[in-house]
């Protein structure tokens, strides 16, 4: 199958868009969850990040 | 295990800001009951619409979008206030914004659900809403809209919650005489916040980072909302200017909404010291700039259409200027531009009443502006404008649901302001140093652990 056909079907097919929506929200949830944990752990103990810096 | 006492930075206005949280008055309960009553009417109207179909609205062929979509665009616009005040001014290093950040963010947080609700109400078959995920396709601007608004709502909740976290902990530690359920709520929501300086340091870092992301989102969201219109080839919508035009209108009405809310909070909760008049003066300058910016966008939009003189475009153009929608169009112009600009420039300084009057007019005008952008185009659609000349009059069902959405926004806001400090105490704190007059106590020496010197 040609690459153009694949890209075209990705854009015109019903379905892939929904997966992108869910992926974006899931990625945001993961990032925000970890950021919140990182904030709350501040001063509790040295994190790996702090040890290297 | 007993939790270590938390550290809370010293704020001179703590007593004033925490005072509204002391009791929920009889007047509050009456207001909430009244608002719930309006919301119930809206729910009844919606159920009736769901059973009988969209025929109970004024929408018809070729007018498929009416008051509900006007509300959607308006609520999403209002939601830009928090991000503008909190995120964009944060990046710009504007310190004066601090006392009003939470009040503005709360508008964002509580407007967005009603923006989303407007879409659901507009759908003839709301039960099919999840089809946008099941069968979502990239060609559809509705998919981009759904993605952007969902992400914006989610990010706004997180941004709001994180900046509220130290103050929830303050409520947990100070409001110990509250009912068990309320203390439990503070305890759970505080996530064990201790107020360690490193926690504050990290919180500031994350909020700074999120401010940049939120600023990008705010542009994306309203541009994408405008593209739902702009990607069609309908006269009046199909313009590259529609994105920036919607965006400036959104930030404009959002900032005006902040003025209204601040003035109400200031008066009802006696927050004059915590929300000084210079905040209103700063917002006044911003609003004057936005008024002129909005006028510029309007002139740019209509002047190019007028000189282009494309027949389909001119049909809609004259509908607005001299036709069926001229009353709304000129009322909008007077409410958004003429009166507010005069009042703000000549009488607005140090005068909260004038600022509130201007802001109320701006918001009424901006709602009319959304209406006058959406409906006239639909009454004169491209290609069919000579054959089909639609008309639209909103019905009682639409007005009832609209009223209930606004009632919901006010209800959420007033309930929130009775349970959480509406002025961010930690961000406006005078000192982050422990009180030197306090009894030296091991358990309060949290800063020693933080400095690690």
Structural notes for this entry:
The complex is a heterodimer of chains A (53) and B (453). Chain A is mostly helical and 53 residues long. Chain A has a domain at 16-52. Helix content of chain A is 75%, strand content 0%. Chain A has helices at residues 3-12, 16-40, 48-52. The longest helix of chain A has 25 residues, at 16-40. The radius of gyration of chain A is 20 Å and the shape is rod-shaped. Chain A starts with a helix and ends with a helix. The relative contact order of chain A is 0.07. The mean pLDDT of chain A is 82. Chain B has helices spanning 14-18, 26-52, 67-78, 80-91, 101-122, 131-134, 141-174, 180-189, 197-230, 242-268, 277-308, 311-321, 326-346, 352-379, 396-419, 446-451. Chain B contains 16 helices and no strands. With 453 residues, chain B is an all-alpha fold. Chain B has a single domain, classed as Formate dehydrogenase/DMSO reductase fold (Up-down Bundle).
Q: What's the mean pLDDT score of chain B?
A: 88
Give the SSE order of chain B as H and E letters: HHHHHHHHHHHHHHHH
Uncertain parts of chain A:
none
User: What is the H/E order of chain A?
Assistant: HHH
Beta strands of chain B, count: 0
CATH class of chain B, named Mainly Alpha
Summarize the structure.
The complex is a heterodimer of chains A (53) and B (453). Chain A has three helices and no strands.
Record the SSE blueprint.
The complex is a heterodimer of chains A (53) and B (453).
Chain A (H helix, E strand, L loop, with lengths): L2 H10 L3 H25 L7 H5 L1
Chain B lengths: L13 H5 L7 H27 L14 H12 L1 H12 L9 H22 L8 H4 L6 H34 L5 H10 L7 H34 L11 H27 L8 H32 L2 H11 L4 H21 L5 H28 L16 H24 L26 H6 L2
Helix pairs in contact in B: 2-15, 3-5, 3-10, 3-14, 4-5, 4-9, 4-10, 5-7, 5-10, 5-15, 7-8, 7-9, 9-10, 10-11, 10-14, 11-13, 12-13, 13-14
